[in-house]
Amino acid sequence: MGCMVVQWLAHGGSWFESLLIRPLSVWSLHVLPGEVFLSGYSGFLPQSRDINTPLLYFSDMGPQPSKPPTPPPSPCLRQPWRTLPTSTQDNLNFMKSYQPRNKGVKHLRILLHGPVGAGKSSFVNSVESALRGIVTNRALTDATSGSSFTLKYQTYKIQKDHQSFYSIVFNDIMGLEANLNNGVQVEDVKLALRGHVREDYKFRTNGPLTENDPGYDSNPSLDDKVHVLVCVVPVSSVSLLGDKVVQKLREVRLAASDLGIPQLAILTKVDQACPEVRSNIHNLHKSKYLKGQVEKFSAMLGIPINCIFLVKNYESEINTSDDINGPILTALRQMVSQGEDYLNYM
Q1: Whole-angstrom Cα distance, residue 114 to residue 234?
Q2: Which of 45, 173, 191, 228 is deepest in the core (most CB within 10 A)?
Q3: SUPFAM superfamilies, per this entry (predicted)?
Q4: Residue 224 belongs to a domain with what CATH number?
Q5: Tens digits of residue pLDDT in 133-160
Q6: Where in the sequence is the domain holding 280, given as residue range(s)?
Q7: Do the domain assignments include residue 37?
């Protein structure tokens, strides 16, 4: 559709016996699809009397260029801020061949802790799924409970084949809560770090484990102690963590630091928090929102960014995939590498 232009010539003056040059103004009304505007100019033409004469005509000027609206900024970076291996096979081979060099331990022990509903048990299942190539649900989870579903101190071994297990074990623990009388006691997490909590000890919310309790191990071996501490938090909850929960997380982290235990973090439920990742998991390290949450969590607890990992747990899937396995195995390898350094130092 062309542009319709309507012009008026407005001029003034008096009758003169001779032609007199008078000022002239020309205004144009431009009518475009969805747009109307005025333009004008002034000049001089010979005139002979006072008059306001509209001069009306139409012309087809063709399509007029218009400035396109500024597009909103992309929620994704052009390049990922962290690059993962293109294949999971190297990490799988590493895990299959790993054996602690310290002869005082049989397994590298990884303790998972964090707020209620963070996905700690789901992460254990996801690691086992990635290592075994089948989706498993051995560590029980609950999608509806508002309180911790894990009530006992449990150790999970992962089967490598019919005759052997991987040389890592996970310990799942009751979730932290803001209320002093709910969730795991911070003192119990500290005791677990030092190996004083026995298998299947049922956590109490009204007080920590004591030396007189049957669940207390007074003489733990190096194999019983924790070698890597991993904090698990939903990525969308980073900005919502209350001061009391953050204080508990920091207290546990400080206790681990005093013991020299390396600390990492897993931010879970990335697909629920970020539509770009939900539609394409390859946007995991391109998402500006997720990168911002990693930086915020690092500043909150003091964990270095290169020790914080974004992970999607297996939830609705019934088959494993390299797209989900890749971030999980990358994080697992870092846990093992740092835990191995700790054991060698010991």
Answers
A1: 9
A2: 228
A3: P-loop containing nucleoside triphosphate hydrolases
A4: 3.40.50.300
A5: 999 887 655 544 444 456 789 999 999 9
A6: 98-344
A7: no
